[in-house]
């Protein structure tokens, strides 16, 4: 993050705000603006100039499909997190609390900061006029580096002014000694943090910025020497140089988890309701965040290819990409306790000119000091959104009852299988190839018992004016528990490559008629579908009906990525997506029919993907946390008919808050048979400290639901910290299990027993 500005404290959307006109664009104007944006200003958003590609044209993956075994777990059972950032503080704003939780779980951390973060060189304390501070880019870069040292010292539980080991290192991936960078290291017991500053200038000679370095052939960017750095020599980077250095650092450190920024931020109409602020034109992110993420994903592909060919084994690691200024545009999804944790670290990073840190250039990024991040109207600190939402892994069982987990390991699809039914142990991962894939995928089983995997692939990541494309791909089983066919491209629902990059993660559901229904969020923040018939033939992409816009609220029909799809008791498809002001619901009126928007009245918005499950009586339970709330709520919806307001008597039970189930992030819900054969809701989610909790809630009358809502959840063993969101495999009281993947890139199974109160 860079080039910040101050503002008032953010406020959640109120009912009044949702319904009264703003004097902004109408829905028709918004859709027209988005269409024009796709056609004419996408170049400004991503700085690409290659021609568009046909919507279903197959593309060549940047990494050949794999099949090699994965490398063994290394590092004495401890993970290593590698984060690649555009600016100092991107990690603190956009990647926490995940960073903090992985450090707590025992992972080491290596952060690579690509730019010097010098901006205009003005390190302005809060309340000081801009013209009262003399610009000094080397000093501002050095002050931001010191701010990071202060923040990570606090994260390690040490004094913020602890002295770090600072030295100059040769960078890998290029001829020895040709490029160097400053490295800072701090160790506390068995925990270690290393900060590496490449310090490429945000604005180089000839007005070269990172977007040009990504997309324009034959340009180069120069580094900036920070004021107090032990490295005062400057260097030049070309496109291929930066890719090689990032890939070389990955090969040197062998991370088990890689955090990146968002390579494909949402298109964004900038108007009075959504001012441009620090966004790049036409997108909801900073102009440096996007190319740094693209460079990182290209480097990941280059590393995987080179290491696999050299070692005969594919690197074993997970990836997570984080949204950036997207946090400003959607409901906040972190509860106050986690916001306060993030704020303490940002406060340490921001520092103050009154601090005595021993660095003459400055003791932090003063504009971020104090409680300023909590009062910034942009609210970046109040959310942590994954670019590719979903569970990790996707679960099913084989014919013998063994748990089968599908995920993405080393950017390739992977299949883990339990060694024996209920053994609680997975065998070696099987590489299914298909990469480079986004971090999450969807697995479904059709009526014949054949499994299909759906994923989003980086089909081209070339830069320099050449192809940069994404596509949805599928891997289909020939027979139950049998071999898979070759990966197949399903294209995207978009007509051009720039829009295709904004497509969301695929979700799918199989219906009793033998068909498989695939859904994905579109670049215009709607939904598209593609259907495979019983004979295995895929139909074309089609759009799903958009919700009507609230009067005067131009973007009220838009949805976030992270769709939930389930079948009701009549085997009709129900689809849920969270918008800015409500959770939207689509449903088939009859099995096999089209999806119809059925949200007759608004139910409260959600900060994350909602969970949904049907009871035997046909009623539906939605479960999610309202924005900025730690407590989830159950919304019982009647069988059949449109969804109505919770205040309507026909709604059924009033919303039930689940006490003792505080946490954050999405929840997974399944209807199961509980003790005594009662219809029971099984819920799984993360606690405030990132561990797992599980609840059985008896469904029925209000009194029963409210009584069960007070039961204590089960907590996972402390060592079972997941990367991302874990998956839940439903079953009776003694059959349910939670599966996650640890920071060492190895999966685990937790089979708890239910509480007596549930």
UniProtKB/TrEMBL annotation:
Composition skew (Basic and acidic residues), residue ranges: 267-288
Residues covered by region (Disordered): 1-23, 264-288
SUPFAM superfamilies assigned to the protein according to its UniProt record, in alphabetical order: Fucose-specific lectin (SSF89372), LmbE-like (SSF102588)
InterPro entries associated with the record: GlcNAc_PI_deacetylase-related (IPR003737), LmbE-like_dom_sf (IPR024078), TAT_signal (IPR006311)
Top-level taxonomic group: Bacteria
Any one of the GO BP annotations: glycoside metabolic process
Keyword Transit peptide on entry: no
Statement: the UniProt record of this protein carries the keyword Nucleus: no
Swiss-Prot/TrEMBL keywords: Zinc
UniProt-recorded Gene Ontology molecular function terms: hydrolase activity, acting on carbon-nitrogen (but not peptide) bonds, in linear amides
Record's protein name: PIG-L family deacetylase
Lineage: Bacteria, Bacillati, Actinomycetota, Actinomycetes, Kitasatosporales
């Amino acid at each position: 993050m860079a080039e910040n500005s101050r503002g008032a404290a953010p406020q959640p959307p109120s009912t009044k705000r949702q319904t009264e006109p703003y004097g902004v664009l109408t829905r028709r104007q918004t859709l027209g603006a988005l269409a024009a944006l796709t056609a004419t200003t996408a170049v400004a958003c991503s700085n690409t100039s290659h021609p568009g590609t046909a919507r279903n044209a197959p593309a060549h993956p940047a990494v050949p499909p794999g099949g090699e075994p994965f490398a063994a777990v290394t590092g004495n059972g401890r993970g290593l997190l590698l984060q690649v950032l555009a600016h100092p503080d991107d990690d603190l704003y956009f990647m926490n609390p995940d960073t903090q939780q992985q450090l707590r779980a025992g992972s080491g951390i290596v952060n690579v900061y690509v730019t010097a973060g010098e901006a205009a060189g003005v390190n302005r304390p809060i309340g000081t006029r801009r013209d009262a501070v003399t610009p000094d880019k080397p000093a501002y870069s050095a002050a931001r580096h010191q701010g990071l040292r202060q923040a990570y010292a606090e994260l390690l539980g040490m004094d913020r002014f602890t002295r770090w080991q600072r030295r100059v290192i040769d960078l890998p991936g290029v001829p020895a000694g040709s490029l160097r960078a400053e490295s800072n290291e701090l160790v506390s017991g068995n925990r270690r943090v290393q900060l590496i500053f490449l310090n490429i200038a945000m604005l180089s000679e000839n007005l070269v910025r990172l977007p040009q370095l990504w997309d324009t052939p034959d340009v180069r960017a120069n580094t900036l020497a920070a004021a107090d750095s032990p490295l005062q020599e400057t260097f030049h980077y070309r496109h291929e140089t930066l890719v090689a250095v990032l890939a070389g650092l990955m090969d040197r450190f062998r991370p088990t988890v890689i955090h990146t920024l968002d390579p494909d931020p949402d298109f964004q109409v900038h108007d009075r309701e959504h001012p441009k602020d620090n966004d790049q034109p036409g997108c909801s992110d900073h102009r440096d965040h996007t190319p740094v993420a693209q460079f990182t994903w290209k480097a990941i592909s280059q590393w995987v290819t080179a290491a696999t060919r050299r070692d005969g084994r594919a690197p074993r690691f997970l990836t997570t990409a984080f949204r950036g200024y997207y946090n400003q545009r959607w409901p906040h999804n972190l509860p106050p306790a986690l916001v306060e944790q993030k704020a303490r670290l940002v406060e340490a990073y921001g520092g103050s000119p009154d601090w005595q840190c021993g660095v003459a250039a400055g003791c932090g990024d003063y504009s971020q000091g104090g409680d300023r991040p909590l009062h910034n109207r942009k609210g970046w600190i109040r959310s942590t959104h994954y670019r590719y939402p979903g569970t990790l892994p996707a679960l099913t069982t084989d014919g013998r009852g063994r748990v089968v987990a599908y995920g993405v390991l080393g950017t390739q699809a992977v299949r883990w299988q339990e060694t024996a039914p209920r053994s609680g142990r997975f065998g070696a991962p099987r590489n299914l190839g298909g990469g480079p894939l986004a971090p999450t995928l969807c697995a479904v089983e059709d009526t014949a018992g054949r499994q299909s995997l759906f994923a989003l692939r980086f089909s081209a990541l070339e830069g320099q004016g050449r192809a940069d494309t994404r596509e949805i791909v599928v891997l289909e089983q020939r027979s139950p528990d049998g071999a898979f066919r070759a990966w197949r491209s399903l294209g995207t629902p978009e007509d051009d490559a720039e829009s295709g990059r904004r497509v969301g993660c695929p979700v799918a559901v199989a219906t009793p008629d033998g068909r498989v229904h695939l859904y994905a969020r579109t670049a215009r923040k709607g939904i598209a579908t593609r259907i495979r018939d019983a004979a295995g033939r895929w139909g074309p992409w089609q759009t799903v009906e958009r919700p009507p816009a609230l009067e005067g609220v131009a973007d009220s029909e838009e949805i976030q990525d992270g769709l939930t799809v389930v079948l009701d008791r009549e085997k009709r498809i129900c689809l849920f997506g969270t918008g800015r002001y409500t959770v939207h619901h689509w449903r088939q009126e009859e099995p096999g029919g089209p999806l119809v928007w059925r949200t007759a009245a608004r139910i409260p918005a959600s900060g994350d993907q909602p969970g949904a499950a049907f009871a035997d009586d046909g009623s539906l339970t939605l479960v999610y946390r309202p924005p900025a709330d730690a407590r989830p709520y159950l919304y019982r919806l009647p069988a059949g008919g449109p969804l109505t307001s919770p205040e309507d008597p026909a709604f059924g039970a009033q919303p039930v808050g689940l006490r003792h189930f505080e946490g954050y992030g999405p929840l997974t819900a399944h209807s199961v048979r509980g003790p005594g054969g009662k219809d029971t809701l099984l819920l799984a989610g993360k606690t405030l400290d990132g561990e797992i909790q599980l609840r059985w809630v008896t469904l029925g009358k209000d009194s029963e639901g409210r009584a069960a809502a007070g039961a204590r959840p089960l907590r996972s063993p402390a060592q079972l910290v997941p990367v991302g969101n874990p998956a839940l495999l439903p079953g009776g009281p003694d059959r349910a299990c939670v599966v996650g993947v640890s920071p060492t890139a190895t999966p685990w199974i937790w089979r708890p027993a239910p509480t007596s109160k549930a």
